[in-house]
Amino acid sequence: MNVEAYISSGILEAYVLGELSEQERLEVEKNLKLYPELRKELALIEETQEQLLMKTAIAPRPSVKQSLFAKIDSSKQPPKVVQLPPRLPRALGGESNAGFWKFSVAASLAVALITSYLAYDYRDKWKKTESNLAELTAQNQQMANDYNTVNQRLDAIENDLRVTNNPDFNRILMRGTANAPGALASVYWNDKTKEVYLSVQDLKKLSQENQYQLWAIIDGKPVDAGVFDSNFTGLLKMKEIGSGAATFAVTIEPRGGRSTPSLETMQVAGNVVKS
């Protein structure tokens, strides 16, 4: 028999672990009797396993020993004597079962450690995946918000074009007065639908206490067309104004507006030109 090949096959390790069938075990024990090299290798395998178990062993607390002896002393029943079978030499497998159980304990500890590591690794990867998912969700939400903002702006531009390109809207250019020579604004007024839209080209920023107010002069009397702040873009829909408007003007009023204009604060004004 090729002893080296027999050792390399791993059958001796399987013999120590008790993983062989009855026929295979008998064959190994027969070969152990015939070949000293196999007995030497078997002893080396068992010694290696015992060293591994000693390294992974956990010493019990001193209280465990005290508790154990206390229970033994308190027992009133005489101990039972169990006859053990004759002990076989180690080379013939006499201590193989003990080695097997020791190896099983070590294997269980190794499995527990590996399982703990895998659980930690899985949790770490799950946390990273959860973080990436949250980041991706936030990015998608931001993209959705940007998309809605763009759509709103496009809708506003489309509405502005509908007004400015509609011949039914009369554009009244309101130029700056002596109070604000550089000011400029425009009104788009539809005499049929009474709609009024305001476009600001140049009006100074006001304090929080004040607002601009648009007026329409009808039959020589000012009619309120709504208040506004100058921080908007495009067209701003104002109050509806009926037919007969001759002039539009903007004054500065207290926030919320007034029922009558403060003529001394007039910023821009423009006459309606009949088309």
Molecular structure report:
This protein has about 280 residues and is α+β, with helices and mostly antiparallel strands. The chain has two domains: about 1-55 and about 90-140, no CATH class; about 170-270, Sandwich (Immunoglobulin-like). It contains six helices and eight strands, in the order ααααααββββββββ. It has helices spanning about 5-10, 10-15, 20-35, 35-55, 60-75, 95-165; strands at about 170-175, 185-190, 195-200, 210-220, 220-230, 235, 245-255, 270. The chain has an eight-stranded antiparallel β-sheet, with no helix packed on it. A hairpin with a 7-residue loop joins β1 (about 170-175) and β2. The longest helix has about 70 residues, at about 95-165. The protein starts with a helix and ends with a strand. Residues about 90-95 have low confidence and may be disordered.
- The global form is rod-shaped
> Main beta sheet, described?
8 strands, antiparallel
Low-confidence stretches: 90-95
Number of domains: 2
Quantity of strands, as a count: 8
Across the major sheet, the strand order is 5-4-7-8-1-2-3-6
Order of helices and strands: HHHHHHEEEEEEEE
SS class: alpha+beta
| Cα-based radius of gyration, to the nearest Å | 49 Å
Taking the alpha carbons of the first and last residues, their distance comes to 120 Å
Strand content: 15-25%
What is the overall number of helices?
A: 6
Average pLDDT number: 81
The proportion of residues forming helix, as a percent range, comes to 40-55%
